[in-house]
Amino acid sequence: MRYHQYRYKFYLNASHAIYIQNRLGQHHPHTWEITLDTIKVVDGFVQFNDVERAIEQFLEQYQDKNINDVEPFNTLNPTLENICEYFKEAIRSLLVDKGWLLLKIEISETPARSYIIDLVAEEDVAVHQMEAEQESTLKQKNFDELSNELLDSILLDSSEPEHDVQ
């Protein structure tokens, strides 16, 4: 199978304040840039809108908000690194459900400051790829099995002789 790599970019307007030495710093806004490098692992037409909509729905809970007030950052220090780690897991799960793999996530809180997690370097992409392929195969198998069962029931019904009721 040939893999197609795509890059998505999203923007999130949100503010935060981080704890430094157990003291909450100054609350300040950012326009966060979130860049995702992905691979489509299932065949078929690319449904960009489906992927974009799922990610935007996830990000909506943070849009125009103080990140400190939204779970899990009401208990987890909302540093650039912690936000990127949390978003990586949530977005990776969303993508797998749609037949995509997350290769890399980069979140920038300013044009000059980014945090990057390269999943290819983490060596777990192969595991997630296998999971996505197995899930895709399972979905296809379930469809094929249901189709066969339906055809079997139709063929059995048509092959049974009709009984005359007297």
Word description of this protein:
This protein is 40% helix and 28% strand. The protein contains three helices and six strands, in the order ββββααββα. The protein has helices at 48-60, 80-97, 125-159; strands spanning 4-16, 19-20, 23-24, 28-40, 100-110, 113-118. The longest helix is centred in the C-terminal third of the chain and has 35 residues, at 125-159.
Q: Radius of gyration from the CA trace?
A: 23 Å
Structure classification: alpha+beta
Strand content: 25-35%
- SSE ordering: EEEEHHEEH
Can you count the beta strands?
6
| Residue share in helix | 25-40%
Instruction: Quickly count the helices.
Output: 3
Write the layout of secondary structure elements.
Blueprint (H helix, E strand, L loop, with lengths): L3 E13 L2 E2 L2 E2 L3 E13 L7 H13 L19 H18 L2 E11 L2 E6 L6 H35 L7
Antiparallel strand pairs: 1-4, 2-3, 4-5, 5-6
Provide the descriptors you would attach to this structure in a database record.
3 helices, 4-stranded antiparallel beta sheet, two-stranded antiparallel sheet, alpha+beta, 166 residues
